[in-house]
Amino acid sequence: MRRENFLPEFELKMANTILIGAQWGDEGKGKIIDVLTNKADVIVRSQGGNNAGHTIVHAGKTYILHLIPSGILRRGKVCVIGNGVVVDPIALVEEIQHLRGLGVKVSKNLLVSNCAHLVMPYHRSLDEQRELRKGHAKIGTTKRGIGPAYADKASRTGLRMSDLMQPIPFAKKLQSKIRENNSILQALGAKPISYREVHDSYLAAGVKLRPFVTNTVVYLHRTLQRGKEILFEGAQGTFLDIDHGTYPYVTSSNTTAGGACTGTGVPPHKMDRVVGVMKAYTTRVGEGPLPTEDRHLADRLHALGREFGATTGRARRCGWFDAVATRYSTMINGIDELAITNLDGLDEVDPIRICVAYRLNGKRLEVPPCDAVQLENCEPIYDQMPGWKQSTASAKKLSQLPTKARNYIKRLAELTGAEVSIVSVGPTRAQTIFV
Ligand code: GDP
Ligand code: IMO
Ligand code: MG
């Protein structure tokens, strides 16, 4: 939703921004967040957990953020882990320590919602067991316990950050949760979880996290009242959304723009723009349909050392740009602006294919079918464009890109139905073109 038209342009540009992944995750959100953070005051995560892996390359160092918003690298910014995130307290403490080891300040610049649900060791174990039992039909999860943690939340049986802050009631609730989950784990043939170990390690993590835990809804509203600007950092991508993604090959949260409201307690009318991040091609990690998947393109990108997962290290599946998917993404998220990343990944590719529609049972489809099996059976209809066959990595302005690369970007924007505001030609801040 945009503010009134009479507001000057610069104010619109710095407005409250939701940033989401427009494809299957790993679009380069971390890099774009880091760039946009320059103008924001507060950066907030609203969903997902440490299944995310957001990479930022700065001053010769590579940082991979899993739970902490990517804004943490810039001084003077406040980062918030909102109520919609599922937090593994042990993983969060490790991430804080790791960042501090790299010289990043993490103290009053991080807040964690007291309503955020906890990821527990039995969630991780259940995630693993369910995947094992599914065999070939597995989802290919990150095994971080995300699905079972959100399942507990929806079943109203989860433990939250506020529970962890109250050791005596926490111990009681934990005892009953461990009992219940151990009987499920035993039935699945898995090792039971030790109550004592979980109790001690979680409460120790709780002590370390106490200074960060607060009512983040109130904090965010006060921030808005003071005229500060918030950047909402999406995790995963549109087609991993629990409602709109390629179900059941999805994650367990709303990765689309709406999730930014429910996951932070900031109402829709406070949002000013939505930025969709998408690669100049398509990738997916894990199982599930990927209509434009192309083995040759994957081999080529992997040979360049690209497209290996930031969280699990798995090789990402790769394919041609899928405009059916990104057009639908624009619809669901209300994308105003696009950030196109990894243009340089196509530098030596010629010709370049773009999927403009699908064919299913002889019919042309302009939107992806809801059913994963039908989507699996969709045959992409391709347009072809000539490659530019030269490096784009040092381009600082659109005019420094080869004409064929500019034409390619223009075509992606036309097909997706949104304006391009950023083109990224490399992992660093400097390799960013503002359009
Ligand atoms: P995220 O999960 O959306 O934040 O993306 P990931 O960090 O998991 O994966 C994106 C990868 O692409 C990371 O290794 C980034 O450093 C890298 N990256 C982002 N933008 C660009 C780009 O324009 N060019 C190149 N070469 N790498 C990029
Ligand atoms: P970022 O934020 C890419 C995928 C997993 C799996 C499915 C379900 O870095 O873009 P889960 O562990 O969430 O239950 O796994 O979702 N997945 C991601 N793929 N990027 C991510 O995050 C992902 N987070 C989860 O591979 O297919
Ligand atoms: Mg990632």
Task: Name its key features.
435 residues, alpha/beta, 10-stranded mixed β-sheet, 4-stranded mixed β-sheet, 14 helices, 20% strand, disordered N terminus, binds guanosine-5'-diphosphate, binds 6-O-phosphoryl inosine monophosphate, binds magnesium ion
Layout of SSEs?
Blueprint: H1 9-13, E1 17-21, H2 29-37, E2 42-45, E3 54-58, E4 61-65, E5 78-81, E6 86-87, H3 89-101, E7 110-113, E8 117-118, H4 121-134, H5 146-154, H6 161-164, H7 167-187, H8 195-209, E9 213-214, H9 216-225, E10 230-233, H10 258-262, E11 273-279, E12 282-284, H11 295-303, E13 317-319, E14 321-322, H12 323-333, E15 337-341, E16 352-360, E17 363-365, H13 372-377, E18 379-385, H14 403-416, E19 419-424, E20 432-434
Parallel strand pairs: 1-10, 1-11, 2-5, 2-10, 5-7, 6-8, 7-9, 11-15, 14-16, 15-19
Antiparallel strand pairs: 3-4, 12-13, 16-17, 16-18, 19-20
Helix pairs in contact: 3-8, 4-5, 4-7
Bound molecules: guanosine-5'-diphosphate, 6-O-phosphoryl inosine monophosphate (IMO) and magnesium ion.
